[in-house]
Amino acid sequence: MWAVYMAIAWLVIFIMMGWSISKLMKAQQA
Amino acid sequence: MEQREKWATKIGLILAMAGNAIGLGNFVRFPTQVAGNGGGAFMVPYFLALFLLGIPVMWVEWVQGRYGGKYGHGTLGPTFYLMARESVKPRTALIFGLIGGALAFATTTLLNSYYLHLIGWSAAYSWFSITGAYFGKNTAEFFSQYLSNHGQVFLFWGITVVLLGIAVGQGVSKGIERWVKVMMPLLYIFAIILVIYVFALGSPLGDPNWSTLKGFEFIWSPNWTYLKEHLWSVMLAASGQIFFTLSLGMGIIQNYASYLGPKDDVALSGLATVSLNEFAEVVLGGSIAVPLAVAYAPKIVPADVLAKGSDAALHWISENFGLGFSYTSLPNIFVQMGSAGRLFGALWFLLLWFAGFTSAIAMYNYLTALLEEDLGIPRKTGTWVVFIMYFLLGIPVVYIDGYLDQVDAWISFQLALLALFDIIVGVWLFKPDNFWKELHEGALINVPEIYKWITVIIAPIFILLPLIGTFSDLVSKTLEWPARIAILAMLTIGAIETYYAIKKKYGEELEKNEVIIKV
User: Tens of pLDDT along B1-20?
Assistant: First the structure.
């Protein structure tokens, strides 16, 4: 079960990071 | 108004902000807190504190920084004064300015005075790892011998601080931004290499009871029983960690944000900073030291404790994890790895050095900006003034036993105190509607309305937790005279300097007790 919790936490962080950085990069290019 | 420096690129700004936030807190303090607070029991309040405290206060500090920058200020005293003016008369606003200025000055001087030494230790240990200096020796004795060799301690300290001075002296976009653009990708690459190695390590001693996976299990099994029994202390530790890791309550996020343009985004940028920091903390910082310690437990845990079983051994690791652990127990593990350990150890300590360097640079820049903007001392000269100040403030760290721990205990309290004033001044006195409007000025995202109320009501309650908790701890520990004198001196100098800075620019306002200067 611990592996599931770890996977969820990592996923949330990856999504937050990927989404915010890619949005910032798009804004930089625009 | 004089034109202030600006960040050259968005990515440069975000890397600088992430470097500011990512420090020893991510790779040493976080594993220490997780290990010492029931492993998985810690992670539940940690995430709660991240969303209810970390993210809102990060936004408040970005808003404050950009607001101060509009008026040409990168320091907290004048910024607090300007924001408080929205609700109270200038003479009352001055009091809030003095509080903010004094606290930020005390943090950037005192915290960095010992932080720079810890970074120096990391530089030294990176060198000792690659040369194998502690291999075949008692690592605890080696560490104490190193600390008593003051020439060597100051050599690695000096190398670090001279490099910091050079980077800060070159300015914001040409210095700090360029340096972090190299250092931050390297930091992430080093950490990712180490994490992959840890995953691949499995059970290095051949006993399946002791594997790196067991370490991950320890961190990620929500230990509800432990949490129920130690709710207050774990909540306290979790919210305290959030301040440290995100560099909140120090004045340095505001300082970096003051170099933004008035219409530059703060909402998405603040969130990106938090995300990058959490990646470095939870994903990377949580996957190196603790799993390694568990996998090599039979080699670092005393035999009598080990004989009592794996729970007792994990408990020993929890109790003994900490700063000293990084320099005494972890090197033992590198020795066990043989020649690969030299490289692994060097990478680990170099990672700590990079992480520390990119945070220390922000504190260094705060003081340089203070000298430049408030006192008119040119940046290049200012960096040397700050260098000398850090040298002097670092002397008691090296020569007085217990001084570092006492000042560190005070700083823990002070971070929460300043974060509380961040909200009192930057949201309550500045007015929640103004704060919300400022947050969305030039914003690349729409922050859900619920966060306005989390910032106004829930975050300050969350801050009061560590504040009350650490204060009682501080009183019971009782600061000794050298630490007390240093703290009082820095607070006093900070307040006097702030008074001078505000009076110089807003003297007429204070005299008439009405707002005159508005941009």
Answer: 567 899 999 999 999 999 99
Distance between CA atoms of A17 and B277, rounded to whole angstroms? Answer: 9
CATH class of B10-510: mainly alpha
Distance CA B393, CA B397 (A): 8
C-alpha to C-alpha distances, B264 to B251, B441, B444, nearest whole angstrom: 19, 8, 9
CB contact under 8 Å between A23 and B268, yes or no, is yes
CA distances to B71, B407, B447 from B59, rounded to whole Å, are: 19, 28, 10
Q: Token pair of B128, please? A: 């000792």
Q: Tell me which residue in B11, B217, B283 faces A10 most closely, judged by beta carbons.
A: B283
pLDDT at residue B478 in the model: 67
Q: Structural domain boundaries of chain B?
A: 10-510
Q: Does A11 touch chain B (CB under 8 A)?
A: no
Query: b/e string for B162-173 if b means 16 or more Cβ within 10 A?
Result: eebbebbbbbbb
Write out the two tokens for B97. 């300015």
- Check B221 against A10: CB less than 8 A apart: no
pLDDT recorded at residue B474:
76
Note the pLDDT of residue B1. Answer: 53
Q: ∠B282-B285-B287 over CA atoms, to 5°?
A: 85
What are the pLDDT digits (tens) for B226-256?
Answer: 999 999 889 888 998 999 999 999 999 999 9
Is the Cβ–Cβ distance between B136 and B436 less than 8 Å?
no
Encoding tokens for residue B339? 């020649």
A30 in contact with chain B, both atoms CB, cutoff 8 A:
no
Distance CA B324, CA B107 (A): 23
Radius of gyration of chain A measured on its C-alpha atoms: 13
Mutation for A interface: B13, B271, B274, B446, most A CBs within 10 A: B271
Place of tokens 């005390």: B106
R_g (Cα) of chain B, nearest Å: 23
